[in-house]
Amino acid sequence: MTKLIKKGDKYKPMTMGKRTQATALEVRLLREGIIESRHIVQAVVCDERGRVLTVAGNSETAAFIRSALKPFQALAVTTTGTLERYDLSDRDLAIITSSHKGRIDQVRQVFNILWRADLDPTILQCPTPEDKQSPLEYNCSGKHAGMLAVCQQRHWPLNNYLDRKHPVQQLILGKVAELLRMPAAEFISAHDDCGAPTYLMQLGHMASLYALLASSTNLDMERIVRAMTHHPAMVAGDGEFDTELMRLTPGELVSKTGAEGVQCIGRLGEGLGLAIKVMDGAKRAKYAVAIHLLQQMGWISPSAAESLCEKFVTLGKYKRLEVIGELSFL
């Protein structure tokens, strides 16, 4: 096991005895300074070798990774020649990783992928959002378009691309299993809300994936990171946490949220990954914890932290969030 020690402006690992559990974090909603609600949050930082460096809670806590899996699902596009075959851009790749808001520019980017791959939007099997007209407007439509483009390029069936046993899903699972050095058969899957498989994994595994994503040692993942950090508005949208964090830390952090209180962040060039899980699934708590921990580790500047706090910690005239606890350097 390892510990992070401060050296200059960076944290460095120091080997220690094995222990991966510490006190969890608590997020309090304060109404005019009085506690109204509490959320329990667990978090872990790992390096690209999968070593737990620091933790709050239990690094072995299991959760579905949900949409934080999308950068790794995008490996199906970057590793098969699909980008080159259909002349897809970094903006296309960014929307493939996204949980977008259905803005017109985002929807057009998803349509561009399908158009270049000679696919009709009606083939998308993600839902049509309530009060919307097309599955193109669903937040996961970019991911689905990327999967379909791979199927088209590989001449794989299009009508069942969400099935767990479909070649495109097996390709994705194989890439994740390879990164984590685990047998693919050991992964437990379930359908995400969009219909695609997502995977149950330990928080330490999520953090390890993001450490690898941020390590700059794999060209396919490096291109995904470049797309996300150069086009953060495609990854989420104006005012959304992932977009605002990557705008404030250009070339330093890659960030992707997941539903039910999941948030993952990679420290670029250093091979470090942070994974957060709010145990009751509250979105507001994960953003407050992310800002708190990024400050603790020196991953964001005071001015960036202040800007993020104004958007995600101060919730109005009478309400704010407070995070209690720190990462434990084991």
Question: Can you walk through the features of this model?
Answer:
By secondary structure, the chain is an alpha+beta fold. It has one domain: 3-Layer(aba) Sandwich (Beta-lactamase). It is 37% helix and 24% strand. It has helices at 70-73, 75-78, 82-85, 90-96, 104-116, 141-154, 167-180, 203-213, 219-230, 232-235, 241-248, 283-297, 302-312, and strands at residues 2-7, 10-15, 25-31, 34-47, 52-56, 62-64, 188-191, 197-202, 253-258, 262-267, 272-278, 319-324, 328-329. The strands form three sheets. Strands 3, 4, 5, 9, 10, 11, 12 and 13 form an eight-stranded antiparallel beta sheet that branches. A three-stranded antiparallel beta sheet has the order 6-8-7. Strands 1-2 form a two-stranded antiparallel sheet. A hairpin with a 4-residue loop joins β4 and β5 (52-56). α4 (90-96) packs across α6 (141-154). The protein is globular, with a radius of gyration of 19 Å. Mean pLDDT is 93; it is low at 1-17.
Order of helices and strands: EEEEEEHHHHHHHEEHHHHEEEHHEE
The CATH class, by name, is: Alpha Beta
Number of strands: 13
Mean pLDDT: 93
Helix segment tally:
13
* Structural class by secondary-structure content: alpha+beta
Uncertain segments of ≥5 residues (pLDDT<50)?
Answer: 1-17
Number of domains: 1
Task: Please describe the structure with a list of short key phrases separated by commas or semicolons.
alpha+beta, globular, 13 helices, three-stranded antiparallel sheet, Beta-lactamase, 13 strands, 330 residues
